[in-house]
Amino acid sequence: MPVIRHFLKQGSKVSIASDGDALQLLKDEFPELDVLELNSSEVVYSSSGFFFYLKLILQGHGLKERAKKDEILIESYAEKNHVDLIISDHRFGAISKTIKSVIISHQLKFKAGLFSRASSSLNAKFHNRYDEVWIPDAEVPFDLSGVLSHSKQVKVPTRRIGVLSRFSKIELPVDIDYLAVISGPEPLRTSLEKCLIAAFQVLSSKKTVIVRGVYNTESLNDLPNISFYNHLNSEELNSLVCRTKVVICRSGYSSVMDMACLGKKVFFVPTPHQGEQEYLSERLEHMKIAPFSSQENFKTRDLENLKFYSGFNSEEMHQFPLPGFLPTLEG
């Protein structure tokens, strides 16, 4: 979203290509922009460790075929609409052989247990098809991604463009104790939702809000101390986060960037078996910024550990676009 807003501000004509909930979110935020609907990129995950990776591997061929179909759609659209730059948000089918194509990606190296080396090698091959890789992060030592954004196997030029967040810091009364923002694949999303509802019902004196991160799903009735939202647009969620003392969310990189830019106190619950999220949460805990718990072992008493952690410092976050981004792009 901040990349789209940046180019619109520069006077560029921007089109959106995506599918599913991601496309719906972007259409809600930018209703005036042209849209190209791509093939479904949905991945089915297992809730158990070994089968988690096995299921991903078995879906690999299908995902590759969908990427090829996306590439055909994008080539056709780009030719008809005189597109001169394609920016892929880590979507490997968003590329052109004839138009400058860049990929936004912090994950140049994989953390996937026994599959780390093989998956990192395959990942590098996909990245090397692009003209450039834009890493949504600041320079060391103010980086968030750690070792994930470093790979000797990625040979194309890489450029750090600054931390990306759709949110901005707003001074509002802090009247919410806990805000849980749930995201990620099923059935793991639903499992976390049930866990958090059960946990926060016990804390009857605490005002809690849960944003479920779902579309086209029946809403839940509010409880005495818990308010529910299926989903919110960026402005609404931005306000809720700024009104909150503590945010509980996944440790996906987008969430990490959002919380860092807002300077929040955060408790992370990484998606089970996702090595990237587990690495980021462990790294931030080691840096004494934010604690975390596995989804299986989460208890509300774990939140008491927050007093030992600093939270994020928004003043240290070097956000997109870093100085020199536009002149370099034009060159």
UniProtKB/TrEMBL annotation:
InterPro entries associated with the record: Glyco_trans_28_C
Domain Glycosyl transferase family 28 C-terminal residues, every copy: 235-304
Pfam families: Glyco_tran_28_C (PF04101)
Protein name per UniProt: Glycosyltransferase
Species of origin: Psychroflexus lacisalsi
Lineage: Bacteria, Pseudomonadati, Bacteroidota, Flavobacteriia, Flavobacteriales
